[in-house]
Specification:
Helix 1 packs parallel to helix 5, helix 7 crosses helix 8 and helix 10 packs across helix 12. The chain is of the alpha/beta class. Strand 7 and strand 8 form a beta hairpin.
Length: 327
């Protein structure tokens, strides 16, 4: 991240100028990410005591759009690569489509203006580009998915990667910190610290930090030995471990490990392990076109029949039914 994100080109004698951010959304957008972006920009204006940052919500399908949790916003239309702003932020969502904003991304790159792709948008960009010429990242949930469907040797598990002015990001709960990091290019450290304090953020994680990867990486909610056991489960999905081997890895007897799962999580190791594998299967079924036998093998099931039976018991429908709905 040696190059600056912003190409401000201020007028002679001008210390700073007002900046306009385009927030691009599509149907099913993440209201968490949208709210986080606007909250940081509002907080920045509050700290500066003037409206240095303004924003416009846009879409390739303008009008009233509904988020993934039924929040409504009114989006202005985009016209190809025209009417570009100082910064483009693409919000992730369940129906994120790269073709809707790729031309604007390319035009912003030519202007050397920053583009920020959050979670699902980062994933779709990586899929669309196919051959990356530099580092890229997305939410940890989708990193394994991308490795299943293609070869992405420069894909990282950092919170943010900057590649020629395109910032691919984990998004979701890290969105506020990402936007503050972007604003740090045009604001001083004291102002950024005030924005973080205003938003009740005690610790701003740097872009190069690794993402937390699943429930086992949050020590606030899990007993230490459970944390280790779940982490082992999350990293051994294709070839699930036997309970005895899992217990050996944690340094407990199988019976003691089962007792911990019952007391703290009200479930058994086997049931949780299967749930973790089925969630991975759900991601692959929903977001890729790989065959169901490949999904089954990647998630530790012996056949499509065993996957289908377990999937229906957990989610109330078969993988085939889910894919038909998505068409």
């Amino acid at each position: 991240m040696n190059k600056p994100y912003w190409n401000l080109s201020p007028l002679e004698g001008e210390v700073s100028r007002d900046l306009v951010v385009e927030i691009f959304v599509q149907s099913g957008f993440s209201d968490l990410e949208l709210a986080a972006i606007i909250s940081v920009l509002r907080a920045a204006n509050e700290v500066l005591n003037r409206d240095q940052f303004t924003w416009h919500i846009t879409s390739d399908t303008p009008g009233l759009l509904t988020s993934g949790s039924e929040l409504l916003v009114r989006a202005h239309p985009t016209i190809g690569d025209q009417y570009l702003r100082d910064c483009l932020i693409v919000v992730g969502g369940r129906e994120c489509r790269a073709e809707g904003w790729m031309s604007r991304l390319r035009a912003m790159q030519k202007l050397r203006n920053p583009v920020v792709l959050l979670s699902d948008a980062a994933r779709e960009y990586i899929k669309a580009v196919k051959t990356l010429n530099g580092p890229a990242t997305t939410h940890w949930r989708d990193i394994a998915l991308l490795h299943e469907i293609g070869s992405f040797p420069t894909l990282s598990e950092r919170l943010v990667e900057n590649n020629s002015g395109v910032l691919t990001c984990a998004g979701h709960g890290h969105t506020m910190e990402t936007v503050i990091g972007i604003l740090s290019e045009v604001l001083g450290p004291q102002e950024c610290a005030e924005i973080a304090s205003f938003l009740m953020l005690d610790n701003i994680r740097g872009f190069t930090q690794e993402q937390p990867r699943g429930t086992s990486y949050n020590p606030n909610f899990l007993e230490k030995r459970l944390q280790k056991a779940i982490r082992i489960m999350e990293t051994n999905i294709e070839q699930p471990l036997r309970l005895a081997d899992l217990a050996d890895e944690v340094g407990l007897s199988a019976r003691h490990l089962e007792r911990l799962f019952t007391v703290y999580l009200n479930t058994s190791p086997a049931k949780l392990y299967k749930k973790i594998r089925l969630k991975k299967a759900q991601t692959l079924i929903t977001n890729t076109h790989i065959s169901l036998i490949e999904v089954a093998i990647a998630c530790g099931f012996l056949s499509t029949a065993s996957l289908s039976q377990a999937y229906k018991a957990e989610f109330g429908e078969t993988p085939n039914q889910l894919r038909k709905k998505k068409k």
